[in-house]
Amino acid sequence: MSTTTKIQPRALVRASGGPRYAVALAVDALGTGLLRPFLLLYGVTVLRLSAPATGIAMTVGIVAGLVCMPAVGRWLDRGARSTVVAASMLVRVVGVALLLATPAGHVWLFGTAALFLGIGNQAWPAAHAALVATVAHGRERDAALAGGRALRNAGLGVGALLATVCLAGGTTALQALAAVTGLAYLAAAALAWSVRLHARPAATPAEDGTDGPAPRMRALLAANVIYVFCLNVPEIALPLVLVTQLHASPVWSAAIFVANTVLVVTLQVPVTVLMSRFSRRSVLALAGVVLAASYLGFLTATSLGHGWGAPAVAAVSVVCTLGEIIYAGSATALVTALAPAQVLGRTLARFELSTGFGLAVSPTVITALAPHGPTALWGSLAAATLVSASAIAIEKDHGTAEQDQGAAQPTLSPGPSRPAGSAIASGNGVK
């Protein structure tokens, strides 16, 4: 049975970590949007590296960054929260500093910079989810996680837009963007650290998970590797198909990317709250069905050829984005619900490992399948995603308390969003 949902922005901000933390997220996302989409361009134009060498260095940096996740998980399980978030931002400051100090032609120093940027980018999601899980609980936590994602996407979009405008300045503009990015990361780290939120794992009420070992979640983790391909569809798969197969203007790719960002920013919280009347696992399985349907839609749209193909792809991309929104609103929420309090960090770290691995391999898989035709690309993605959705639906939750079938929708009110004793907050970070 459901109740009337009321989403009050002030209460949502409090459940997400507080105003100061929200500002830190926005500043961090803005800085990331300034540089991350143009890191490859920086290596090629500023450092005069070859495109293959730049791409390999970036990939190695991202994959190597995943190695830090077990340590991040153990650190979170010792109670650290805002400190880990701040550390993930400071590590990226080091990466930007190395980037600015890299002489032209030095691929290894560029790779080291990419490594530090990769460590920060991989550690941040788990640290952020753990912090939100400490401040908010139940379905309010799900809405808070969705709100954080919407805010981050807004910052990324604004940052990328500003960077695009500045690119007319050439290599000097790229170096300036990198410097501004480093300053943004530094400011965000200071704001996040000032929240001073620390959990007491031993004293945290196990209202979302029972006290026990970390859940195995084998099917969920394996399926997540396939699910995260949807995050690279607007950035990699669709531009590749539109330009090389449909011979459409690059304007279509840009329009789809902008639409994806706008839809995520505006719909992430409302859709997550709407779906809260169902179990998280059921919603996550539904996300796979929606994504698979969109992949089949892309297969049909590309068969229309030049002319109607590009508009059809753009229309189907809305369905794909909806699947992405449902997936993002339920996946991390399900993991935090399944994890016992004392192993929350390690559980989130394992989940982020699967996410990072999927993001790392998806460009290679997509670009390898695309030359073999639309059926090879979209048919394979649809089949793999449907299998993953089925695996999630039938997996059993052993030793956990994810009893949220038919759960009521959250009402985000201005009242306190965390039980007493679940965390220590020095200062006014969560007030």
Give the topology, please.
Layout: H1 9-15, H2 19-35, H3 39-46, H4 51-65, H5 69-77, H6 82-101, H7 107-135, H8 138-166, H9 171-195, E1 197-199, H10 218-227, H11 229-244, H12 250-275, H13 280-302, H14 309-338, H15 344-369, H16 374-394, E2 423-425
Antiparallel strand pairs: 1-2
Helix pairs in contact: 2-8, 2-9, 3-4, 4-7, 5-7, 5-15, 6-7, 6-9, 7-15, 8-12, 8-14, 10-15, 10-16, 11-12, 11-14, 11-15, 12-14, 13-14, 13-16
Subcellular location: Cell membrane
Main location: membrane
Keywords: Cell membrane, Membrane, Transmembrane, Transmembrane helix, Transport
Question: Can you offer a commentary on this structure?
Answer:
The chain has 431 residues and is mainly alpha-helical. The chain has two domains: 1-199, MFS general substrate transporter like domains (Growth Hormone, Chain: A, Up-down Bundle); 206-407, MFS general substrate transporter like domains (Growth Hormone, Chain: A, Up-down Bundle), CATH 1.20.1250. 72% of the residues lie in helices and 1% in strands. It contains 16 helices and two strands. The chain has a two-stranded antiparallel ribbon. The longest helix is centred in the last third of the chain and has 30 residues, at 309-338. It starts with 8 loop residues before the first helix and ends in a 6-residue tail after the last strand. This is MFS transporter.
In short:
The protein is mostly helical. The protein is 72% helix and 1% strand.
Tally of distinct domains = 2
Helix count from the secondary structure assignment: 16
Shape: globular
Query: What is the CATH superfamily classification of the largest domain?
Result: MFS general substrate transporter like domains
Strand order within the widest beta sheet:
1-2
Give the proportion of residues in helices.
over 70%
Give the termini separation.
31 Å
CATH topology of the largest domain: Growth Hormone, Chain: A
- What is the average of the pLDDT values? 86
Structural class: mainly alpha
Report the portion of residues in β strands.
Answer: under 5%
- Give the SSE order as H and E letters: HHHHHHHHHEHHHHHHHE
CATH class of the largest domain: Mainly Alpha
Largest sheet report: 2 strands, antiparallel
What is the CATH architecture assignment of the largest domain?
Up-down Bundle
The counted number of beta strands is: 2
Cα-atom Rg, whole angstroms?
21 Å
- In terms of per-residue confidence, which ranges show pLDDT below 50 for 5 or more consecutive residues? 202-210, 399-409, 413-422, 424-431
Quaternary state of this entry equals: single chain
